[in-house]
Design brief:
Blueprint lengths: L2 H12 L8 E4 L7 H12 L4 E4 L4 E4 L5 H11 L8 E3 L3 H7 L4 H10 L4 E6 L14 E5 L4 H10 L3 E5 L13 H6 L5 E4 L9 E4 L6 E4 L8
Parallel strand pairs: 1-8, 2-8, 4-6, 5-9
Antiparallel strand pairs: 2-3, 3-7, 4-7, 5-6, 9-10
Length: about 220
């Protein structure tokens, strides 16, 4: 190897790493392309962070079982771990694995899901401690959005759900604005077109005593 060749290799090694930008995946919100969903799923499965559309706002999420990824979301959102995030499940059967569902809760959720609601329920042991309140409760969503449902179905595990915003500001309305907002802090941004821009309605079903904790896009009572 010549001296010039050695110098070129050394220069590449010592060169500061350029800032990476998130992967942009433009996915059809009515008929999500399977190969593009799989690319996002591969990122989630490796502990990456993905911004994705729901029936309310764009969400920032990761694989529920990836502790380091969940911790990164907490840091990024500057969120107190005592106020855990909700997570997205694929349907009622999936919810029953992660929450204790009474007959009343089942009937209520069957009537309203998929939809713009977050339900607070007693958690099972499958929910990581980092995602539980002091009372061992969790928040669960099943958005009425094909991309969000395709993600969790293909991953086979729930995905963390928190608004894709920083410093308590509302998320941008244009998915492309997330690239400037998060820069190199997320791994992929799914452009699924516009979303309503209102948060979900949060309803506690603890003790079969419904209580609205936040009014949002989902009407209550119904």
């Amino acid at each position: 190897m010549t001296l010039t060749r050695k110098f070129c290799i050394l220069r590449r090694v010592l060169r500061p790493r350029e800032r990476e930008t998130p992967m942009i995946l433009t996915i059809n919100p009515q008929n999500p392309q399977g190969r593009l969903i799989q690319r996002a799923v591969d990122i989630l499965a490796k502990g990456g962070l993905v911004i994705y559309p729901t029936d309310t706002q764009y969400g920032l999420g990761c694989d529920l079982t990836q502790k380091k990824a969940v911790e990164k979301v907490y840091r990024l959102k500057k969120r107190d771990p005592k106020s855990p995030f909700s997570f997205v499940c694929s349907g009622l059967t999936d919810i029953a694995q992660y929450a204790k569902v009474s007959n009343f809760a089942y009937r209520t959720m069957k009537r309203l899901l998929p939809g713009p609601y977050t339900f607070i329920l007693d958690a099972t042991r499958l929910v990581p401690q980092l995602m539980l309140t002091r009372r061992q409760e969790c928040g669960i969503r099943v958005p009425d959005h094909a991309i969000a449902q395709a993600l969790v179905t293909a991953l086979g595990r729930p995905v963390i759900n928190t608004s894709a915003a920083l410093d308590d500001q509302p998320p941008p309305t244009d998915p492309r604005d997330f690239e400037d907002l998060f820069k190199n802090q997320v791994d992929a941004i799914i452009d699924g077109g516009p979303v309503p821009g209102r948060p979900s309605t949060i309803i506690s079903l603890i003790g079969d005593d419904p209580a609205v904790l936040r009014e949002g896009a989902g009407p209550w009572p119904v």
